Each structure stands twice: as C-alpha cells, then as structure tokens.
Amino acid sequence: xxxxxxxxxxxxxxxxxxxxxxxxxxxxxxxxxxxxxxxxxxxxxxxxxxxxxxxxxxxxxxxxxxxxxxxxxxxxxxxxxxxxxxxxxxxxxxxxxxxxxxxxxxxxxxxxxxxxxxxxxxxxxxxxxxxxxxxxxxxxxxxxxxxxxxxxxxxxxxxxxxxxxxxxxxxxxxxxxxxxxxxxxxxxxxxxxxxxxxxxxxxxxxxxxxxxxxxxxxxxxxxxxxxxxxxxxxxxxxxxxxxxxxxxxxxxxxxxxxxxxxxxxxxxxxxxxxxxxxxxxxxxxxxxxxxxxxxxxxxxxxxxxxxxxxxxxxxxxxxxxxxxxxxxxxxxxxxxxxxxxxxxxxxxxxxxxxxxxxxxxxxxxxxxxxxxxxxxx
Length: 377
What we know:
- Helices cover 35% and strands 10% of the residues.
- It is α/β, with parallel strands linked by helices.
- The protein has 2 domains: 4-170 and 332-372, no CATH class; 190-329, Glycogen Phosphorylase B (Rossmann fold).
- The longest helix has 25 residues, at 342-366.
- It starts with 14 loop residues before the first helix and ends with a helix.
C-alpha cells in the first residue's frame, strides 16, 4: 500500500484527521464517523485501507497482508478515497468545490506515473477502489489498466472496466444488521408482503421506479414509498425491512444499489428487478438461493410480480430466510476485519484477478526492447 498524504484519504473525513500525524497507522487511523449517513454506502475504500493497516495477532486467516518491501508485493493498493472525494468536494461539474476533486485526481496520477512499480506494470497490478458511480470522474480512463473495485459497470464502457479484470463490491449497508432475528415463525411475523422505500426519481434503468409506483402503491400488503435517506428515514427503513417478507430492489442510477445489501442484512428476501446486473462474489455465492429475479418487462406487467410473490411457497421462503442469515456476514465491513467478512471476500476476489494482470504484464514486456539490446544496437 502506498503511503499517500492524508488529503487523499482520511484527511477528507474531518479536520482532525486532515491535521493528524503522518503517516497513518493502525493507532491513529480514525474510526468511520457514525453520522456519515448515506456516505457510508461508498466506504469500501476506507475498510480496505483499514484492513491493510491492521497488524493482527497472528491468528487470523487473512486474504491480504501489507508488506514493507514493495519488491515482495503481489499487488499495490492505492488508498485514494475517490468516492468520498466526490461526496465531499461538490456533486456537479459547475460547483467550484469540484475543482478540489479534479486536482486530487491529477496529483494522484502524477504520483503514480513517477512510481517505478506503476511504470513496471503499467498499473495492471494496482488496486484502486471506485465504488461511487462518479468516483474519479475526470480522469477515470487514465487508470483503466488497473484492477478497479466497483459496485457495478453501469457507468463504465467495456473498454474501461469489465468483470475479466475488475472486482464487483457490495455497497456498504446503511441500515443496522438484524443480529437477533430468531422468530419462531418468521414468515408470519413479517406482515408486509413487499417493501420498498427510497427515491423514485432516478436515471437510466432507474426510471422503472416511477412506473412501479403506479403499479404497487395502492396494494394493501405492499409498502411502496418515496423517501430520501435521512437518519430518521434510515431507521424507518430498518424497521420496514425487518417486518417484510420480500424487499424490492429495482435499478437506481445504475443497475445495483445499497438497498439490496440493506435487505440482505435485514434477512428480507431480495426481489431483484433487472435485465443486467453484476453481483458481488458471484463465483462463490449463488444469489438464487436467497433472492428472486424478475425481468423489467415482468415487473411492469400489472399484477404479475405481486401474484408471484403471494404464491411463493412458504417453506421455500423460510429456506431463503435461513440462507440470508448464513451469508449476511459476507456483506459486513468492520475493523478489525473478521474471517469471511466483506473485506476478506474482496481481497480474495482481487487475488483471482492477479494472474490475468501478470499475464498482461509479461506480454507487454515481450514487445519492449531491453536496455542491454539497445546498447548493443
């Protein structure tokens, strides 16, 4: 992991972090702020950095460990909080504060291009988190050789990001995890059939949310409500998901959204409406064991989705509920990291991308004339 100045990561969290001692260590690494609200959903970058600072006690089964000698590193983590930079430094291109975000991207690129390890690989063995759809919005294309950690590919052309080289991360859930979900009859105790609470004005595929509102808002056992993410509303969403059998997950501005992972940690069976969605850890986790999928055409057919859910076998739902309880720890982000939590799952995904990066590096070197041959010429 590169030792970048604090302004690239924890310096954006608050003034005390910006002015704190350098370099950042496990002892002075600031906790994620409890009042961050919806910003938390894009905090994967923070938890990955924290996991590399964690020294451990020697007994953990860890997927990634920071080494002091870069020559022995298999990969290089770039701790730039690009999502937090977007959320902190202006949300549109006309905001003067946006220039701070752009300048950080420029400086980071200048730093990397001076690194012999970045030059050696062309950035192919460098890991860079970009989980907000607008993260690194100005110069993203300059880093498309690296292993990017994204939440989906909704804003990325195929020439820049793809599942063959990049890693799909979950959003970090913003509702509290349901840790004591031990109802004797969970199906009957969840009285709402289908739950959705969120912004209905979205872009691209997310326009389906307004159409679904017209179909679902007047049904007695369906809760479909327009809402924004305030602390109070997050609490209400927590209660709503815990009291519902199914939680609706239509596309947002991109195919995925935080709502899916809120549902998972609430043990509310996700109903995923999408014609194209990439999900985290799909080579390890079979989402069909705890989720139901509908195409956009099916979901927009009046009565179809609700009728299918009402006819869904109770025993099958209970099995899905149990599976959600079994796998929800894979979507937890915490410090210190724990075995098989979200951080460790992501590092394992990164390790699986490295052979392809190594192959690309070897092939690119074949095309270069070595120094000793140039001298001979």
